[in-house]
Design goal:
By secondary structure, the chain is of the alpha+beta class. It has three helices and five strands; from the N terminus they run E-H-H-E-E-H-E-E. The chain has a five-stranded antiparallel beta sheet with strand order 1-2-3-5-4, covered by helices on one side. A hairpin with a 2-residue loop joins strand 2 and strand 3. It is globular and about 40 Å long.
């Protein structure tokens, strides 16, 4: 059933979370995203896509940013409502990405036998498939900016 979008105009001030770099805190990020995206008028399917993408970005920060560091560090997540969508920024302050021995893969795996596919490293592909825009910046840590635009005439939450 399609419904006309009744978008609740949210403030254009960012909503910020800071979590310890531990997987136990990912549900807080997902719950916050759900509340913000539902209030902004996103359909259920888009919210689920965003939850997968932001969880992947946070998981990468948790797994890689503070690797080999006794201090587990923190991950900042910022949600910014736009006129036509939502931007989520995930930022860590570790250095593991900068020391990565292999370049980040930018090509797909089409035509690659499953036995030759590398383990891991597909998170960026998944984020790009689920989101409308993905940017990665490395400077004193890693920042992943995920943007989802609103679809039109879909069933809303």
């Amino acid at each position: 059933m399609k419904t006309e979008r009744n978008v609740y105009m949210m403030s254009h001030s960012p909503i910020k979370l800071r979590i310890p770099a531990e997987a136990d805190y990912l549900d807080i990020v997902r719950a916050a995203l759900y509340a913000i995206a539902a209030k902004a008028g996103f359909p259920y399917e888009d919210i689920e896509d965003m939850k997968v993408a932001v969880t992947e970005a946070c998981s990468n920060a948790i797994l890689h940013a503070y690797k080999g560091n006794d201090d587990r560090g923190e991950v900042d997540v910022e949600f910014m409502c736009l006129e036509d969508g939502l931007t989520m920024t995930v930022r860590d302050y570790g250095g593991a990405r900068e020391e990565r021995p292999e370049p980040i893969r930018t090509t797909g795996l089409q035509g690659t036998p499953i036995s030759d596919a590398p383990i891991g490293g597909l998170g960026l592909f998944m984020m790009r498939a689920l989101m409308d825009e993905v940017k990665v910046r490395v400077n004193n840590g890693t920042e992943v900016v995920l943007t989802k635009r609103m679809s039109r005439n879909e069933e809303m939450v």
